[in-house]
Amino acid sequence: MKKSLETPIKLNKTVALCIAAYQEDPDYLRKCLQSVKRLTYPGIKVVMVIDGNSDDDLYMMDIFSDVMGRDKSATYIWKNNYHEKGPGETEESHKESSQHVTQLVLSNKSICIMQKWGGKREVMYTAFRALGRSVDYVQCPFQSIGKQYDC
């Protein structure tokens, strides 16, 4: 059954927009984030996860902070990811860093995480795992080799 245009739409669901980034064109990324910032859905959460944590990847985190607002967003450089411990990391410290990432995502409206390279699936897994059951809806489309995928 379709709703008529006169039926009021309830905006009471919690929503997260996940952005997977890997060596993105700076202008394209900036335009993407500016578009996201203009969204007016109440309480939308934005989680951008960068696939790579080298100095060469920092420009994407800088663009995120510039567009989303340094005082209104959080950033975190993670030496590993949920599936792999970092160099010299113990099981306990890996568990602590994983919990820290989850807490950052849950306590901020917009956050950018740089993590150890692992591919787009690993990046999306980080966003989904950190969000857990805190939102009612997650949207994370991505393109690969000219094809559009929706998660």
Automatic annotation (TrEMBL):
<dbReference type="GO" id="GO:0031982">
    <property type="term" value="C:vesicle"/>
</dbReference>
<dbReference type="GO" id="GO:0005886">
    <property type="term" value="C:plasma membrane"/>
</dbReference>
<dbReference type="GO" id="GO:0000139">
    <property type="term" value="C:Golgi membrane"/>
</dbReference>
<dbReference type="GO" id="GO:0005764">
    <property type="term" value="C:lysosome"/>
</dbReference>
<comment type="pathway">
    <text>Glycan biosynthesis; hyaluronan biosynthesis.</text>
</comment>
<keyword id="KW-1003">Cell membrane</keyword>
<keyword id="KW-0256">Endoplasmic reticulum</keyword>
<dbReference type="GO" id="GO:0005789">
    <property type="term" value="C:endoplasmic reticulum membrane"/>
</dbReference>
<comment type="subunit">
    <text>Homodimer; dimerization promotes enzymatic activity. Forms heterodimer with HAS3. Forms heterodimer with HAS1.</text>
</comment>
<dbReference type="InterPro" id="IPR029044">
    <property type="entry name" value="Nucleotide-diphossugar_trans"/>
</dbReference>
<keyword id="KW-1133">Transmembrane helix</keyword>
<keyword id="KW-0458">Lysosome</keyword>
<dbReference type="GO" id="GO:0050501">
    <property type="term" value="F:hyaluronan synthase activity"/>
</dbReference>
<keyword id="KW-0333">Golgi apparatus</keyword>
<keyword id="KW-0328">Glycosyltransferase</keyword>
<comment type="similarity">
    <text>Belongs to the NodC/HAS family.</text>
</comment>
<keyword id="KW-0808">Transferase</keyword>
<keyword id="KW-0812">Transmembrane</keyword>
<keyword id="KW-0472">Membrane</keyword>
<dbReference type="InterPro" id="IPR001173">
    <property type="entry name" value="Glyco_trans_2-like"/>
</dbReference>
<dbReference type="GO" id="GO:0030213">
    <property type="term" value="P:hyaluronan biosynthetic process"/>
</dbReference>
<comment type="function">
    <text>Catalyzes the addition of GlcNAc or GlcUA monosaccharides to the nascent hyaluronan polymer. Therefore, it is essential to hyaluronan synthesis a major component of most extracellular matrices that has a structural role in tissues architectures and regulates cell adhesion, migration and differentiation. This is one of three isoenzymes responsible for cellular hyaluronan synthesis and it is particularly responsible for the synthesis of high molecular mass hyaluronan.</text>
</comment>
<dbReference type="GO" id="GO:0085029">
    <property type="term" value="P:extracellular matrix assembly"/>
</dbReference>
<feature type="domain" description="Glycosyltransferase 2-like">
    <location>
        <begin position="18"/>
        <end position="80"/>
    </location>
</feature>
<dbReference type="Pfam" id="PF00535">
    <property type="entry name" value="Glycos_transf_2"/>
</dbReference>
<protein>
    <recommendedName>
        <fullName>Hyaluronan synthase 2</fullName>
        <ecNumber>2.4.1.212</ecNumber>
    </recommendedName>
</protein>
